[in-house]
Records
---
Amino acid sequence: MADYNEKILDIHDLDITFNTTAGPVHAIRGVDIDLMKGETVAIVGESGSGKSVTMKAAMGILASNAAVNKGTIEFTYHHADGTQETVDILEKDKKWIRRHINGKRIAMVFQDPMTSLDPTMTIGKQLIEGMVWHFKTPKKEAWEKAIQLLKEVGITDAEKRMKNYPHQLSGGMRQRVVIAIALACNPDLLICDEPTTALDVTIQAKIIELIKRVQKERGISVIYITHDLGVVAKVADYVNVMYAGKIVEKGKINEIFYDPRHPYTWGLLSAMPDLNTEDERLYTIPGSPPNLLREKTGDAFAPRNQFALEIDDKLEPPMFKITETHEAATWLLDPRAPKVEMPEELKARIERMKKEAEGYEES
Amino acid sequence: MVKYILKRLGMAVVTIWLVATLTFFLMNMVPGGPFLSEKAVSPKALAALEEKYGLDKPLFEQYLTYIKGAIHGDFGDSLKQRGRTVMSIISSKFPVSARIGGLSVLLAFSLGVPLGCISALNRGKIGDNIIIVIATCGIAVPSFVICTLLMYTFGVKLGWLPTLGLKTWKHYIMPVAALAFYPTAYITRLMRSSMLDVLGQDYMRTARAKGLNQFVSLFKHALRNAILPIVTYLGPLIAYTVTGSFIVEKIFTIPGLGGEFISSITNRDYTIIMGTTIFLATLVILMNVVVDIVYKLVDPRINLK
């Protein structure tokens, strides 16, 4: 079993600005994420909250107009001889990252399997490419390994599939292939960027199960980037809720789902479609995410927050510790703040979720 | 695939027949005839000439005679170039044009594709701007200007290259360059936009995430996907270029097929008009079939049915 005490990724105070024609966009404003070996961390947030940008920074594939203002991304890996090395990815140049990190130690599974495979190359060639490139594996050996990988991700007829082109496979199959490609070089860390968003629901569950199984068997760490709280609930050990380039609440899965503290997390949980909600209309968080072109004082979420305090417009809230693992950035947690409870409806929903979860465990 | 090709060839025969029929009647609708000229020809001589070539018969009968001959591979004699058959004119002049045309297509392809790639990879930078300016000029400047400029610079001023005829390899340089100018510019622009499109695709991001080096991902992933529009363009381009260019052949005095197209029309040399038109149509159709087959080889998603 994996050694859980070893920190594999440590993103500290990451701050990124994009220089666009309209002006600088402050996309990431001080993000901290820790990841232990063998753990799964989910990063949740609306589109444009900076989830993907953070992970692209970790892979060194940021767009060329991005500037990292400060922060570190420390990644720890083992050499073939077992010696451990920690590097700050932000200090390395792209060439080094490509050679030593991308695909080899950190691999990525992308959102849309329909477009993330090269349509003019056979599955087999795309699978062995990474191995041949990084480890100089002989083609034949790589081919055998690739067949094993396809079997591992649950593709039947693996030998035959190797010679197929992506368009001959269904969406779910292709996502399995994308996962197999990501696993080809035995990475320590797998980043899944919305891995199930483009798939239909029945396949979604299977792909999630697959990623979970692979993670268990290989003892690798996984980062999920998603806006689907349903997925988060199934896979994550820890959850980071991101809003406007900042992490506003982080904690263990149960802490986020059963004891959320940040009004934004309340909003996200309330906005989850659910069969038992009495209200006929699906809840949405009012307003839209802020335009990061304009710097704003205070809490970025304040304009959309029905529980906002006066101070929210003036000063950005720090992270308040709730438990050893649970933190949230909202002034509501300040001892001087008025006591605000989460909305009644959400409370009822969380109760239901708890009951359902118990039901699962019993059955 | 074999079935597809046979089907396409069957369609080609019909198309060529249509082209031949249309050309035949349109050509005869134009007033005048091959034996009319400024010099007064005696009505008797005219009648004798017309009888010799069968031009005195009703038009439809002429048409039937022509088609019958054409099916048997007989395209008739030239009306103006005494003693030469259409076949012999095409087969003696086509190789000349084909050599120059073939070389210039080759040049255009091997220059245009890399230039387009370089331009796309350096998008917005100085190299891209230079290439785009030159390519735009190449499309905008007509070929007679380019021919004249080349001739003036390298033939007259510098005296490096011969300006007339096709005796040595040196004679080929200027006509090939002049003929390749436009397609090179066109392919460069086409390749640039197609490459930019491909570079933004998700599978290129996948290649980057795999850690592949830029050149590997360019050659193995991007090029093959980006080349399709070029293949499309290449088919008709080859057909039109190997049959010669009137302007380039005139300026460099090359005895090619390109001049024959134009002069046969002004001469009302009916059989040559028919012969060259059918020849060009056949080539265009054949090249399109070849393009379809190449498509299938480049992109496995394309299904030939």
---
Amino acid sequence: MNLEKLMRIDRRLIFLLIALAVIFPLLFPIGLPTHLSKPVQDTFNAVDSIPPDGPPLMLSIDYDPAAMPELYPMTLAILRHCFSRNIRVLVLSLHRAGPGIGEMATTRIAKEYGKKEGEDYVYLGFKPGFGAVILRMGEDIHGAFLTDYYNRPIGEIPMMREIHNYDDIPLVICLSAAAIPELWMMYAGSRYHQTIAAGVTAVSAADYYPFLQTDQLVGLIGGLKGASEYEKLVNELEERLGVDKKRKESLSKEEYEKLQVSHSKASAGMDSQSIAHLVIIAFIVIGNVAYFAQRRRKR
Amino acid sequence: MRRQLPLAICFVMGVSMVVQFFIPHRVSQEFYRTILDWYRIVFAFSLVLGTGTLIKVHWAKISKKSKGWQYSIITIGGLVFMLAVGFITGIQEGTLFMKIFEYVEVPLEATMFSLLAFYIASAAYRAFRARTVEATLLLIAAVVLMLGRIPFGYYLWHKIPGIAEWILTNPNMAAKRGIVIGVGLGMISTALKIILGIERSYIGGGK
């Protein structure tokens, strides 16, 4: 084949191959096994150490729909982890496009696990102001959020009677595609000594490794791979706790299979990501082989 | 006066907040909470300002029939429609508002973001050429990380995920930490310059 052609492959061909690499594994799953990484295991352990029916985990949904393919599966996995172990959850959003995602995720998973709004979880909704909201919650959550997402006064919610500030929150997990975890570390972490973990997109995961070493983050879930690892840990936990067995007994075969698919969304996505990465690497190799062959010929 | 008053407010508030941080007295704490509430209120108004500007810009485009004015009708129409639907049906799961969010906004935004995969693939093919030592290092690091972030990398050689993790926790972290410290020092110096009135560009004009 002409080297010039290899050096200048039509980008439409690259687009087509990437599209096929993404679509085919979604239609015909390969089921590649997931290997655990330490930052994800640490996040899981931090959530798992929260006592059942005790102080709640605070989950901050700080991303917009564009980041959903990566961050939504980890949102669902974290909520499933909490509800399967009866850990209470306090959900909020500092991103203007986050409240809809928070409502979708919380309502659906709570319904699946039979959890009651106001007792097992509270959805505070959105408040503008990023750092100001984080700082205000350090003083008094009731001052930062006067009502929840459904316009119910915070003081009337049973679960919120025992929760006033970060002293009553053992762990905050910020899920974000931007720099919002840094705000949580700067304001809630440094000023109020709040324990924080983060779930971020793969492209921004590299930015957060320095904070893992300094313990400013106790754990990190990076991209779809991190989400698939967390999903695997939760699926294993549910098997150990017998949650999966109970579900199998109470649901019809179709309902159970449908649920299994939704509980493995990140893992299914990893098949596509794996093949897409291999296609990109193949193109890089082709480009370099052609480049060096052409250079040798010129000499 | 138009320049001196904002500078004076900025100086007084900046110094007050710095001093307040070191005083754990009840009055100081109450002052801090009040300022935080004010900050959130001002921030909320920025959303109102943003919406107002959006309408103003697109309304001007429609009235002048500028290029692409038809899209401005969709923008303003969408804004008004979603506001009305939100007020009428509510914003809980199962409402029309949430259905539009889930079946229109979510796929649209996800589609826009997913286009990146195609451009990244094309850009990687064109840009990752081992022309120099630095480019070769970048190329090797990129390939190792791409393999390390997928299960296939483990089967290719079980140490690849570990090497990818090492790249992230050592060379990457060293560079990132340097950048973070630099940014932090820059933020402190800029904040001081604003409080002391040396940096005045935020009030328009000046240094």
